[in-house]
């Protein structure tokens, strides 16, 4: 359960998020909105990457501002550009990197990483930077799933992917046991979502099932 | 792929050797080639390193870019040194440079970054009592090794973009986007590390 309680955020003197007051408990939630509408900032608040300057964000009852460390154990985050997320040279090492500090031995970390990568058809020995765009995004997903978070936030993860990989990635998100919060411009991918929030000028201006929310958004930008 | 390559999977004795002693050997070799000033001894050290490439069965696609880079660097360095200090000194300087770089590259080609990070963490662990965080030092080393590949990739893309605009001879067309992209990458990487809980432990 993700709770936004009177949340606002200001960069310098510019308010970028205002009056977000909602609870997200559906399995598949999407944020849509124009560039600069505040949706990515709100998404980053879910795992404490951005801390609200007003109000509180709680995940499973944990405040992201004061208990960020605990929150990040519950919330995984997948970014737009997987190249920026790859820390280690091979796929296996990169996924195992997420498990540092988990108390597992090096061998156990490598075995667990190989297991997760195998589920998604990736070779642990493959140089991470030489994977295709779609495979790199899968690797980014694996590096989060290996931690078995309760919530997965994905900030425009399909922006750099071709249509086939976009569909495949979205289908995979649909199969996960985790609660997924997807920030996206791909309105065609929202059909199977439970709830869509439309952002404009830092506020939630519509909150509905996908078809109605997308219709609202199309009218807003037309 | 960067010429100063990252890990190349393999099963040779060099691949199987523990990272710590390998790292010590490379450091000792680098120190030795700085102290040696006989071209014959330096030639011997280089031959030993090249033998390492044979033992590790490094494929051609990995050693050829390195050879090309080292030849270009050596020609430039040799020419300058010869002009300034004479042929013997120029040969000594080039042999030192090539031996040290070839040895460092052989180390990265046969050692997983993860193993390097673990070794560094082990080595600095006694410093924990002085406030040093071994996992952060290890991560720093790992990211530094990774940065070679990342920055090479960014440089290649920026060069290609400048060429496409007919500005391949303009230093500004390279330096400005290279710096901007490097800083943006650093920013995004920091955010990704924070999202993965690095620094939280």
Automatic annotation (TrEMBL), chain A:
GO terms for cellular component: ATP-binding cassette (ABC) transporter complex. The keyword Lyase does not apply. SMART domains: AAA (SM00382). Gene3D superfamilies: P-loop containing nucleotide triphosphate hydrolases (3.40.50.300). It comes from the Bacteria. The keyword Ion transport does not apply. Belongs to the ABC transporter superfamily. This is Biotin transport system ATP-binding protein. It comes from Prauserella isguenensis.
TrEMBL record, chain B:
InterPro entries: ABC/ECF_trnsptr_transmembrane (IPR003339). The keyword Transmembrane applies. It comes from the Bacteria. GO terms for cellular component: plasma membrane. Pfam families: CbiQ. CDD domains: EcfT. It is found in: Membrane. Keywords: Membrane, Transmembrane, Transmembrane helix. The keyword Transmembrane helix applies. It is a multi-pass membrane protein. The chain crosses the membrane at residues 23-56, 63-84. Signal peptide: none annotated. This is Biotin transport system permease protein. It comes from Prauserella isguenensis.
